[in-house]
DNA sequence: TCAACTTATTAAAGGCTGTTTATAAACTCC
DNA sequence: GGAGTTTATAAACAGCCTTTAATAAGTTGA
């Protein structure tokens, strides 16, 4: 019954042509996106927002309704005339598969168009750490979800994959991820498409965290936003004018590798005094180790060489002084590093995410404070600085959003 | 005879509607932009590039030709069939007025669509430094050029203004420019439109340098570029996906105000250890003053408190050791500061401009060297680092480009 | 040189957008 | 309960680009 996919897919290459089909796709995606973001809307509201005539919108909405992706949901309030019919998104018209690859776990989820999870599974990363095994694990995970849910393949828009390391999102290749030494250049998209026989899109994890927050999290209202991922390292994702900014040809968003200390130590990236080397989770661990080795006793820590991020966060929860001081100082350094990003990009929102920022909630306030203090007030007032809302789900949600772009955004090129 | 303007202007608000008019405008601007950027093209080439049918393009080109903005210029080479007719941009179909406001000079130029200057004039900034006097000076300058050239107002697309200080480019207001203390909030666009009775667009100088290089200078081939303006201060302009990125609501591009030294001195912007406070022209002057006061004799300098940027650049040209060392060190700091920009934005081009970078040509090589060394090679190889081509013209050319967006780019919203 | 092939061009017919216009239905307000 | 307002539908319309067919103007190679 749902013919939306065929309606669009059929066009193939031709769709790109600067012709009426483009116009059609533009207006249809815009209707769907408006309704997705703002909930049920009437035809009149859509016409107003889209600067189309009522009749034009009526045709579009009727088409989308009969294709099953929109449905009539109640009536709106009258403002002196006939009550408008409200149309809502049928979130179960299609589903997406979201995959979050990390070094030690593989999360796979089957979600509907409002990111409600139908079913999910989490597999331990394969012991041999080879690309081949990861691909096989993903295949298995996806297959399991498809079978358990009974959702037909036709209703699956595609598979979105969040992967660590630099990702060439055009080719879908993962390139030398630092924490997966056996992965050199892995054509992940190609391999997975072979295995799964579905369209696959691969993107860098931090970019998908950003995209997830933009579409379904804290960043919903922001056009230009920077997502800061503070965990063992410091990564980031940049959304500009509403869509993910990837750079030329890719690799943008590495906001953790700007110089904040001209005389700082060398970072793995080749630079000296990077934000990451000065203020990431690993930097915190390094400094706590040094302090402990230097005789600063703390009951919350194991032997210095065994300290992990989880120990640090636990120590913080137990109120360990040393840890609190280190985390506070680190947050101030992060804030100082972000000032460059803010002054360069002037986003309307800065979203803080990642294990460290979640484990140390004060970070947001400290960053907020430093930025308010050190950025021209007229402009810093416009900037919202918030925590990520999606927590450990942001990778999956972002991967889902990546696939949904197919339906909700106009993709030229 | 040239009806292009009426053809488009007539549409008014309606143009925005997501309808065929939009399509028409899209395709026409794309034809004009392709021909502007790539020189004379045949209908077949355009059809290929634009993914339109030959017949479709033919109609468009014929329209544009009869409106006078394109003209037939010779024939192309045959590749086994009839020779194609080539169409070129009629650069004198329209003109633009470009204004470059700086603290002590006002440049006004009348240019055609290929930025050939028909006539120009340079006025000293008014002694009283009031907005009112600047506006009057601009009015006078524009009037003079219009009268001298005899070009009718109908052929002028509009006036582009490059202004120092933060500029709200939507409202066309200049906000508290640091070097013009009498200017608080100046509605420059509004005032000039009243005086000149022409459409006026105002933008921050660094942004227009970037735009100028993108359209007519070193950045022609780049989609994502960062322009770095190194003069007394360090400013910048960012072009993303081919168009100027302004941030929310404006003010982006201030790449001189990222922290590069956590313990550095306070900058006027409120931050500490900014790139600007560490490595701008004024920072160089400050350090040379200190050295001289500390007894480091140099025959090339006047009394320390009288040293200006021009003295520094002259001393460099005379081969003054102290100066060379300072400029080299400064360039390395600038490079270190730009690494953050490169890693965040991953542009395909970095353009260095401004008085200091022009006066000390080695800067480009030093920056190139440091960045090659400290940015992941796979990605830094893709990055071009070049000098600006437009030199002291880039403000004017950028202002011209700003106005030409009207014709050559699709402007939604 | 000339047929065969290729490429460029024009013109008319056609398809598909959204728009305009006319009409009706449903609601509020006094 | 009628005037005025808002929502909705349907048919005729206008304007884009596409399709198709016919023509024009080159190249190539025997």
Automatic annotation (TrEMBL), chains A, B:
GO terms in the biological process aspect are: D-xylose metabolic process
* Record keywords: Carbohydrate metabolism, Kinase, Transferase, Xylose metabolism
Family matches, as Gene3D superfamilies: 3.30.420.40, Winged helix-like DNA-binding domain superfamily/Winged helix DNA-binding domain (1.10.10.10)
Q: Which residues form a coiled coil?
A: none
- GO terms assigned for molecular function: kinase activity
Family matches, as PROSITE patterns: ROK
What the entry lists under SUPFAM superfamilies is as follows:
Actin-like ATPase domain, Winged helix' DNA-binding domain
Keyword Transcription regulation in the entry? The reply is no
Q: PANTHER family, alphabetically?
A: BIFUNCTIONAL UDP-N-ACETYLGLUCOSAMINE 2-EPIMERASE_N-ACETYLMANNOSAMINE KINASE (PTHR18964:SF149), ROK (REPRESSOR, ORF, KINASE) FAMILY (PTHR18964)
User: Of which family is this protein a member?
Assistant: Belongs to the ROK (NagC/XylR) family.
What the protein does?
Answer: Transcriptional repressor of xylose-utilizing enzymes.
Q: Specify the protein name.
A: Glucokinase-like ROK family protein
Originating organism: Melghirimyces profundicolus
């Amino acid at each position: 019954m749902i013919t939306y996919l065929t309606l669009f897919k059929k066009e193939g290459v031709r769709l790109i042509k600067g012709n009426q089909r483009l116009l059609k796709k533009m207006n249809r995606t815009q209707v769907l996106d408006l309704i997705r973001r703002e909930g049920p809307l009437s035809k009149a509201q859509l016409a107003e927002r889209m600067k189309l005539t009522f009749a034009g919108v009526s045709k579009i909405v009727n088409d989308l309704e009969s294709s099953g992706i929109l449905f009539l949901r109640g009536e709106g309030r009258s403002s002196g005339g006939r009550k408008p019919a409200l149309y809502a998104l049928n979130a179960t018209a299609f589903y997406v598969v979201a995959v979050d690859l990390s070094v030690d776990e593989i999360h796979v989820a089957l979600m509907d168009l409002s990111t409600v999870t139908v079913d999910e599974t989490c597999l331990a990363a394969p012991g041999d750490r080879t690309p081949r095994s990861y691909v096989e694990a993903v295949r298995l995970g996806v297959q399991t979800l498809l079978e358990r849910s009974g959702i037909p393949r036709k209703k699956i828009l595609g598979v979105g994959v969040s992967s660590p390391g630099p990702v060439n999102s055009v080719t879908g290749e993962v390139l030398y991820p630092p924490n997966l030494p056996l992965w050199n250049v892995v054509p992940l998209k190609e391999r997975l498409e072979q295995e799964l026989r579905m369209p696959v899109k691969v993107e860098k994890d931090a970019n998908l965290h950003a995209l997830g927050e933009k579409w379904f999290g804290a960043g919903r209202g922001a056009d230009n936003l920077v997502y800061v991922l503070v965990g063992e390292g410091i990564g980031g994702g940049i959304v500009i004018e509403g869509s993910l900014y990837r750079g030329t040809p890719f690799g943008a968003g590495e906001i953790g590798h700007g110089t904040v200390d001209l005389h700082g130590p060398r970072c793995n990236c080749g630079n000296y005094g990077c934000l990451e080397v000065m203020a990431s989770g690993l930097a915190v661990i390094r400094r706590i180790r040094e302090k402990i080795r230097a005789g600063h006793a703390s009951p919350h820590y194991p032997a210095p060489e065994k300290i992990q991020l989880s120990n640090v966060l636990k120590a913080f929860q137990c109120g360990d002084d040393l840890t609190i001081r280190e985390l506070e100082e680190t947050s101030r350094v992060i804030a100082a590093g972000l000032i460059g990003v803010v002054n360069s990009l002037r986003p309307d929102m800065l979203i803080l995410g990642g294990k460290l920022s979640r484990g140390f909630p004060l970070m947001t306030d400290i960053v907020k404070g430093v930025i308010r203090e050190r950025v021209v007030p007229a402009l810093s007032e416009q900037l919202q600085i918030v925590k990520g809302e999606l927590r450990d789900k942001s990778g999956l949600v972002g991967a889902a959003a990546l696939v949904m772009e197919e339906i909700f955004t106009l993709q030229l090129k």
